[in-house]
Specification:
mainly alpha, elongated, DUF222 domain-containing protein, 455 residues
Length: 455
C-alpha cells in the first residue's frame, strides 16, 4: 500500500471515532490501544510535515520544536512553519504497548478495534513516507500540508475524548492525563486553519494521481477491489524502470491483463456499466487472439526483472478469490474497477514500449530457424520483428492510451478529500512554490513581543 491510500484510510477511521464519541467510554485495554493509535497518528503527522517542509525526519523526531516562542505575527505570516512546530511539539502520551502484542479478538468494543486499525494504517503510511519521501514534487508536498491540516482538528477532538476515558480508568496515570490536557490546550487547530488556507491557494493533486508517476515501483499488496487501481497504475512504471526484462514476462503480464479485464467485466456487468464492460472484453479478446508466445521466437540473455508479473499475479489472485454473492458493488469499488479498465491501454502501451526497447538494445535475441537447435542472433532493423513485438504493437494501435474517450487518470482519495476539511477562512492570494519556502527567517535578537503563550 501507499502513504496516500493508508493516510486516507487513517482519516476515515479517525472521522468515525470522532463522530461516534465512543472513545470516552473505553475500558483500560481499549484505552491502551487508543493511546497506541494516537501515538502512531501523531508521529505520521509530524513526519509528513517534516517531508513537506524539507526537514530531515530523524532530526525532526529528535528535536524539541514548539510554538511557545512563535510570535503572533510569525504565525500569521508563516503558518506552515507554525503548524510544523505545533505538530513537532504536540504532547505525546507514551504507551508501552507494542502494536504486534495487541490481540484484536480480545478487544471488547468496536471503538477499540477501530483504534487498532488507526495504528495499523498510520504505521504503514509512515513506512511508505520514509521510503519514498524524496519522490514527492512541490505540489504534492502542498497536498501533504493539506492532509495534516485536515487531520489536526479531528485528532485534537479525539484527545478530549481520550482525556475523559483516562481520568476514569487511569486516575493515577498523571503523565498520560497531563499530556492529553496539554494537547487540548495546543493551538494546533487554529494553525491548521491558517496553513490550510495557504495550501488551498493552488493545485492540490493526489499523491498518486494516475497522470503522475508513482513514488514507488514495489509490488503493491492487493487486499480490496479499490486497491486494484493502485496496483494497476504501478505496472507501467515497473515496465518503464526495468532495465532487463524477459519476453516471457512481458507476454505473461499481457495475458494476465486479459484475465484481470475479463474478471472486472464480470463484476461490473450486473450494474450496467456497459461501456467499461465492452472495452474490457474487447481488449481481453484481442490479447488472447494475438499473443501466442513461443520459446523459439525470441529469448533473453539474463533472467531480468519480474516485478510487473508479480504485481499482475497479486491482482489476479485477489480477483479470482472474489466471488460476488449477487449484491451490487459499492460505488467506490465500481469506480475503481472502471478506472482500472480505462488504465489498461496505458499498460499495453508500456508493454509494447518495453518489448521494443529490449529488442532494439540487443538484450533480446531472435531466431527464425526451423531446426531443433535454434540459431540465436541480435536483432537488426532489417529483420522482421518477433511475433510478440508485432502483436503488442498491433494492440497498442487498436487501443491507444491517449484516446480522449478512455482517460488514463483518476482522482484517488486522500486524507484531505476523505475528511472534506474546508474552513470558512478564505484561501490566501498566493503561496510559495514549496512548503519549505513558507518558512520565514527568525530574527537574530528578538525584542519582547506577545507570543501564543504570553497573551
Amino acid at each position: 500500500m501507499t502513504y496516500r491510500s493508508e493516510s486516507a484510510q487513517l482519516a476515515r477511521h479517525l472521522a468515525q471515532l470522532s463522530t461516534n464519541s465512543g472513545s470516552r467510554y473505553l475500558d483500560a485495554d481499549g484505552l491502551a490501544v487508543a493511546l497506541l493509535g494516537r501515538h502512531e497518528s501523531v508521529r505520521l503527522m509530524q513526519e509528513t510535515m517534516a517531508v513537506a517542509t524539507g526537514r530531515d525526519i530523524q532530526k525532526q523526531a529528535a528535536g524539541a520544536d514548539t510554538v511557545a516562542n512563535l510570535t503572533l505575527g510569525e504565525v500569521v505570516n508563516h503558518p506552515v512553519e507554525a503548524l510544523r512546530q505545533a505538530m513537532a511539539g504536540y504532547p505525546v502520551a507514551q504507551t508501552p504497548l507494542p502494536f504486534l502484542d495487541v490481540r484484536v479478538d480480545s478487544l471488547r468494543s468496536d471503538t477499540a478495534q477501530t483504534w487498532h486499525r488507526v495504528a495499523r494504517a498510520a504505521i504503514i503510511a509512515r513506512h511508505d513516507l520514509s521510503t519514498e519521501h524524496g519522490a514527492y514534487g512541490p505540489e504534492h508536498r502542498w497536498s501533504m500540508v493539506a492532509d495534516v491540516a485536515a487531520m489536526t482538528p479531528v485528532v485534537q477532538n479525539l484527545d478530549r475524548q481520550l482525556l475523559l476515558a483516562a481520568r476514569r480508568v487511569r486516575p493515577a496515570d498523571e503523565r498520560t492525563i497531563r499530556a492529553l490536557e496539554r494537547a487540548g490546550q495546543s493551538p494546533a487547530t487554529i494553525l491548521a486553519i491558517e496553513a490550510d488556507a495557504v495550501a488551498r491557494t493552488g493545485a492540490l493533486p493526489d499523491l498518486s494521481g494516475l497522470r503522475v508517476p508513482p513514488s514507488s515501483t514495489r509490488p503493491s499488496a492487493v487486499t480490496s477491489l479499490k486497491a486494484l487501481l493502485e496496483a494497476q497504475r504501478r505496472i507501467p512504471a515497473q515496465l518503464e524502470r526495468a532495465e532487463e526484462i524477459r519476453p516471457d514476462v512481458i507476454a505473461r503480464t499481457a495475458l494476465g491483463q486479459a484475465r484481470i479485464l475479463l474478471a472486472s467485466a464480470r463484476l461490473l456487468e450486473p450494474d450496467n456499466h456497459r461501456r467499461s464492460v465492452e472495452l474490457a472484453r474487447s481488449m481481453a479478446t484481442r490479447i488472447g487472439e494475438q499473443l501466442h508466445p513461443e520459446p523459439r521466437d525470441v529469448t533473453a540473455l539474463v533472467p531480468g526483472d519480474t516485478t510487473p508479473l508479480v504485481q499482475t499475479t497479486l491482482m489476479w489472485q485477489h480477483l479470482r478469490r472474489h466471488r460476488p454473492d449477487g449484491a451490487k458493488l459499492r460505488g467506490a469499488e465500481a469506480i475503481a474497477l472502471r478506472r482500472l479498465i480505462n488504465h489498461a491501454p496505458l499498460v499495453v502501451d508500456h508493454l509494447a514500449r518495453a518489448a521494443k526497447r529490449q529488442l532494439s538494445s540487443g538484450r533480446w535475441l531472435i531466431s527464425y530457424s526451423d531446426a531443433a537447435n535454434f540459431t540465436w542472433s541480435r536483432y537488426n532493423y532489417m529483420d522482421d520483428a518477433p511475433r510478440l513485438v508485432t502483436a503488442l504493437n498491433d494492440l497498442r494501435a487498436a487501443f491507444p492510451a491517449t484516446e480522449p474517450s478512455r482517460p488514463t487518470w483518476a482522482e484517488l482519495s486522500s486524507a484531505r478529500t476523505t475528511l472534506g476539511h474546508r474552513t470558512t477562512k478564505p484561501s490566501r492570494h498566493e503561496r510559495p512554490a514549496t512548503p519549505d519556502l513558507a518558512v520565514g527567517p527568525r530574527p537574530s535578537n528578538p525584542s519582547p513581543r506577545k507570543t501564543l503563550h504570553n497573551p
